[in-house]
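queue> pop job 88
queue> type: inverse folding (structure -> sequence)
queue> payload:
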């Protein structure tokens, strides 16, 4: 009975590992340009599968003696190391990508993945120490549940069309910024010029494509890690910029958008305001930036 349970545990470990390994590669956007690189990355995984399949024949990984006791084989530690190696690399890469993320959505996704990988490695280590307790099965189930709940919470903060932070997340972030009282912050409010005309003359599908393209331009324009980009609603966007060259940021945004290829003119009006200590609420900060945006829209109508 112990023999069957032990073998099932190892098979279950690898099944979970293989299924989540593919998810990890997709989520981290790891793409190998050359086939040789792909093969090299899969070699440890192939070795692990071969060792597991050979084990019933010669006990190369583990075996159960007549008393029902678990005994390590000559390659058992290698097998454990191979599995832990992927978890360690995955956790490290998730941490690196989270540091480089340009928006809250990506940062949160990588953090969730990194935590999952680290927890799985810890649970696997504990399972090797306490072999009579099904720690890995319970730990895996709890880890997947935590990831699922975290991703559900994250989806609440993401705009489904543009994949930017939504208004709910924007208000939370602005509240945190005002509470920090960092004077080196600018709030930019952007509005797509003549967007209603685009929808009326070219259709809402083209309007949605334009919004998605502009969202990508905003993400590309925000080169600082601390920059925050959100869709306020409709054709309006918000950026929290922490830097000294807000005019340069505005110019990058216009340049990227003007390079887009659409059957109509596409650009945005931008209003911005620097944070001041007398702004006790985030609404005060937003109103000042929105007021400048209104002045920009008036100038546009005049032209």
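queue> result:
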């Amino acid at each position: 009975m112990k023999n069957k349970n032990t073998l099932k545990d190892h098979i279950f470990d690898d099944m979970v590992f293989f299924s989540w390994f593919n998810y990890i590669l997709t989520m981290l956007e790891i793409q190998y340009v050359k086939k040789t690189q792909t093969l090299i990355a899969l070699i440890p995984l192939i070795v692990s599968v071969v060792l597991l399949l050979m084990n019933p024949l010669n006990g190369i990984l583990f075996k159960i003696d007549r008393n029902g006791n678990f005994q390590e084989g000559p390659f058992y530690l290698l097998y454990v190391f191979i599995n832990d190696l992927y978890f360690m690399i995955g956790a490290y890469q998730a941490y690196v990508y989270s540091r480089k993320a340009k928006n809250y959505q990506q940062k949160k996704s990588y953090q969730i993945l990194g935590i999952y990988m680290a927890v799985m490695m810890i649970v696997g280590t504990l399972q090797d120490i306490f072999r009579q307790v099904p720690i890995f099965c319970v730990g895996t189930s709890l880890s997947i549940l935590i990831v699922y709940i975290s991703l559900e919470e994250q989806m609440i903060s993401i705009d489904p069309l543009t994949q930017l932070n939504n208004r709910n997340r924007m208000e939370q972030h602005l509240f945190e910024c005002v509470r920090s009282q960092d004077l080196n912050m600018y709030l930019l409010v952007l509005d797509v010029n003549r967007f209603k005309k685009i929808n009326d003359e070219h259709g809402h599908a083209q309007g949605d494509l334009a919004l998605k393209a502009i969202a990508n331009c905003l993400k590309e324009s925000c080169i600082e890690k601390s920059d925050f980009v959100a869709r306020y609603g409709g054709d309006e966007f918000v950026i929290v910029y922490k830097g000294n060259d807000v005019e340069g940021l505005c110019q990058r945004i216009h340049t990227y958008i003007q390079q887009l290829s659409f059957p109509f003119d596409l650009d945005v009006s931008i209003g911005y305001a620097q944070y001041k200590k007398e702004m006790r609420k985030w609404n005060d900060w937003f109103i000042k930036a929105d007021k400048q945006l209104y002045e920009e829209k008036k100038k546009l109508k005049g032209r």
